[in-house]
Amino acid sequence: MARSVRPQTKIAFTVLAWLVGLILFFPILWAILTSFKTESEAIASPPVVLPSVWTLENYFDVQARSDYFKHFFNSVLISVGSTLIGLFIGVPAAWSMAFSPTKRTKDILMWMLSTKMMPAVGVVVPIYLLFRDWQLLDTVHGLTFVLTMINLPIIIWMLYTYFREIPVDILEAARMDGAELWKEIVYVLVPMAIPGIASTLLLNVILAWNEAFWTINLTAAQAAPLTAFISSFSSPQGLFWAKLSAASTLAIAPILLLGWFSQKQLVRGLTFGAVK
Amino acid sequence: MGSITLDHVNKAFGDVQVIPDISLDIKDGEFVVFVGPSGCGKSTLLRLIAGLEDTTGGTIKLDGADMTNAPPAKRGLAMVFQSYALYPHMSVRDNIAFPLKMANTPKDVIAQKVDYAARTLNLNDYLDRRPRALSGGQRQRVAIGRAIVREPKAFLFDEPLSNLDAALRVNMRLEITELHQQLKTTMIYVTHDQVEAMTMADRIVVLNAGKVEQFGTPLELYRKPANRFVAGFIGSPKMNFIDGQDAARYDAHSIGVRPEHFQLSRESGTFTGKVAVAEQLGADTFLHVNVERLGLITVRTGGDETFENGETVHLTPDPQRIYRFSADGTALSHGQA
Ligand SMILES: Nc1ncnc2c1ncn2[C@@H]1O[C@H](COP(=O)(O)OP(=O)(O)OP(=O)(O)O)[C@@H](O)[C@H]1O
Ligand SMILES: [Mg+2]
């Protein structure tokens, strides 16, 4: 039986939802608007909402000062690379925890999660020193490695949750049908878990794309992804709000578009298993 | 070929001994049914043979070769699961072809075998559908098709019909029996339904709490149950058990009489009681008769006579068919051979 909702209640909830959405989106909207203003308009007080003249100058300045596409490419390499490596390790790991658990499986999962509770600053010095000694500073592969390690617990947790939803009978049927372990994973488990794997992939690309602590601390010019690109506009030459906003807009645009186009998949994946 | 030998197989999950010690000899081509109450270890035993569980001790041989530690893929057995366990992301055709694909069979051979299996099982019209678009009975056929294409040494069935409705169950029961007669491949079939066991099996293994109570042909189990458990489990409606002084008269701790082995009379007999419930099935009538000292006794009689509730009737057991049991439930020798 459908629950009846009064129209007033419905309107109230709709307004509330839009309000919350607007509050969450406001900073991004503000940055986008500011990126089209002149520098003086950008710091005007009281603030100007819409630019009096829409200008693309900030974007040209940003591109002139540092190569956006180089950083964009670094971001893609690092986020996609670390996620793919993470999945490659995470799928078999989650398989074993979901389908052949031992007494310690729960502990291992908790332990992996606990690494996410540790503040990153706590290990920045040792990791920095290791990176220096191994000549990994400011390299794309070094950064990919760190981000793989950072996101692996999340990848394994997500995959583990999705795999638990898959009836073990079907994997056993594959074993009876003569599938060795890797064939069971490739032909049966992975295709059945595609929605879950896809959302894990998307979410981790987004997380890695936005990761700012390690990407800023471990890179200089060569391997810097877009996060480091933004921050390079925030410090040295005083406050250039409009240029900073242009850089930010450029940096978040790709991931925003990715999120927009894949939102169905993301929502489906994140609520997967909530409703059977 | 497909003989299966279990030699002192045991299985424990942690501290829980599920199967203490089982030895069995299943001949090539036999249809063997494992039957027993829920939780007695039927599925576990089947999964041990399949290789889906590791044994705690003992050896499992297939065609004389020790397979105790071989992975399921190497044992050459096919299994049909209660849940069907079809691959949801593959079409019916790909489901049936999967075991062949795993064995690197050439494409044209696969096509030919899938086609043959589909024709045998009436699945031709569904080959391009996904399992979710099939009825329960059709899914079950696909699961069987997937099992037969690879020509396994033996088929293992774990309660394959329990998700089907009664009419379909009877049909599929016949189909599986026919399949066995046609293929002559060893089949092990797990069920808790003793009617399935009686009608399908060459030989039945009656399991109770992880132990084999008896291993024999359906009629052996019916006529010469080894103990009270088997006597009570095989036969429908259940055998009536009588203890105390009425059993002592027959020089036994307890006796058993099947509902069909009572002589029913309105005039006189060994036991006297009142009809509590009369279940009329048309061909047969099951009378539940309340007998003093003994409680409810079930009697099977022809469908032509009618009985009133509360009517007094007299029961006389067929002396040739009284089963006698000792205090520990073991069958004592009885009249009928
Ligand atoms: N993985 C497991 N871990 C622990 N105990 C188990 C496991 N699998 C089965 N058991 C136990 O072993 C016993 C036998 O189980 P099994 O599934 O073989 O019974 P069954 O005869 O097939 O019953 P049913 O007719 O209900 O299917 C049960 O008591 C069950 O609780
Ligand atoms: Mg079972």
TrEMBL record, chain A:
The keyword RNA-binding does not apply. One of its GO terms (cellular component) is plasma membrane. It is a multi-pass membrane protein. Its main location: membrane. It is found in: Cell membrane. InterPro entries: BP-dep_ABC_trans_perm (IPR050901), MetI-like (IPR000515), MetI-like_sf (IPR035906). It holds the Pfam family BPD_transp_1. Residues 72-262 form the ABC transmembrane type-1 domain. Coiled coil: none annotated. The keyword Membrane applies. The chain crosses the membrane at residues 12-33, 72-96, 108-131, 143-163, 184-209, 240-261. Keywords: Cell membrane, Membrane, Transmembrane, Transmembrane helix, Transport. One of its GO terms (biological process) is transmembrane transport. Belongs to the binding-protein-dependent transport system permease family. This is Mannitol ABC transporter permease.
UniProtKB/TrEMBL annotation, chain B:
SMART domains: AAA. GO terms for cellular component: ATP-binding cassette (ABC) transporter complex, substrate-binding subunit-containing; maltose transport complex. It is found in: Cell inner membrane. It is a peripheral membrane protein. GO terms for molecular function: ABC-type maltose transporter activity; ATP binding; ATP hydrolysis activity. Residues 4-234 form the ABC transporter domain. InterPro entries: AAA+_ATPase, ABC_transporter-like_ATP-bd, ABC_transporter-like_CS, ABC_transpr_MalK-like, ABC_transpr_MalK/UgpC-like, Mo/tungstate-bd_C_term_dom, NA-bd_OB-fold, P-loop_NTPase. Pfam families: ABC_tran, TOBE_2. Keywords: ATP-binding, Nucleotide-binding, Transport. The keyword DNA-binding does not apply. Belongs to the ABC transporter superfamily. This is Sugar ABC transporter ATP-binding protein. It comes from Devosia pacifica. The gene is smoK.
